[in-house]
């Protein structure tokens, strides 16, 4: 035990990150066992995050071959191995560090990932997104509403309050969408065109006669089926953007499919925006 006023002990541990956790490590250190300095008060979580690895990305930690949690305090010379989500290693489910998956996956998306938020809503997923949300707001929404935080901000994912978070690796919206769906195995939860892309509300069928006065003459003449968002009152129908969005959805479905027919996911009930 360190006496009051005595200098804090500094030692070293050997750390190796596996698979995609190497994306967070300096390029010259990827795939290598790295000797890292640490202080006696630091936990395994502190050591890994000092290397740039957010705790939300780690599914399993082995210290000298034994599974440990984030609060474990390593000893000098310990060997730490960190594994990401879905990394194949048969050590038993009780050793996993990630929290119990949410029964109904919902998301809070960082302000800089607006196009990802829109695409996830197009696919029917529940997504909270705001153009003026700061970091404390994102953390609060994630914790209070039990939403998975999607961000490219590593520092944000390192906040202790965040239990469900995902670092989005790609810079391109379509690739980001596929990445989220694949990593969280969401394919069977997709229901395209069932949510409002503007406010995230669930769309409901709208009677044409009840909304007729809000329609342009040509829209009223050529379209019969409409949906409405109860939250923001926006009206949807299969207008000029339908083909473009439908092709996008089918393209994503084809890339996700593994032996299934193209476009194979739950049938939608809504309509894309015009």
TrEMBL record:
It holds the Pfam family Mut7-C. This is Twitching motility protein PilT. It comes from Mycobacterium lacus. Residues 105-247 form the Mut7-C RNAse domain. Residues 13-90 form the Ubiquitin Mut7-C domain.
């Amino acid at each position: 035990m360190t006496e009051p006023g005595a200098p804090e002990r500094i030692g070293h541990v050997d750390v190796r990150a596996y698979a995609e956790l190497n994306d967070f490590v300096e390029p010259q250190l990827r795939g290598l066992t790295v000797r890292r300095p640490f202080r006696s008060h630091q936990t395994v979580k502190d050591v890994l995050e000092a290397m740039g690895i957010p705790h939300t990305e780690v599914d399993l930690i082995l210290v000298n071959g034994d599974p440990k949690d984030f609060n474990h305090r390593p000893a000098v010379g310990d060997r730490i191995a960190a594994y990401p989500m879905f990394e194949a290693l048969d050590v038993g489910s009780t050793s996993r560090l990630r929290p119990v998956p949410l029964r109904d996956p919902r998301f809070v998306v960082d302000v800089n990932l607006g196009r990802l938020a829109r695409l996830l809503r197009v696919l029917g997923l529940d997504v909270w997104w705001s153009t003026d949300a700061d970091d404390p707001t994102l953390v609060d929404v994630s914790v209070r509403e039990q939403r998975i935080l999607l961000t490219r901000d590593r520092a944000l994912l390192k906040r202790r309050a965040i239990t469900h978070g995902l670092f989005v690796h790609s810079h391109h919206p379509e690739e980001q969408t596929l990445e989220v769906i694949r990593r969280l195995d969401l394919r069977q939860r997709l229901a395209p065109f069932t949510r409002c892309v503007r406010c995230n509300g669930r769309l409901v069928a709208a009677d044409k006669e009840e909304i007729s006065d809000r329609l342009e003459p040509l829209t009223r003449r050529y379209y019969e089926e409409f949906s409405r968002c109860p939250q923001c009152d926006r009206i949807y129908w299969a207008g000029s953007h339908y083909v473009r969005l439908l092709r996008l959805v089918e393209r994503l479905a084809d890339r996700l499919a593994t032996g299934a027919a193209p476009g194979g996911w739950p049938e939608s009930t809504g309509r894309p925006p015009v």
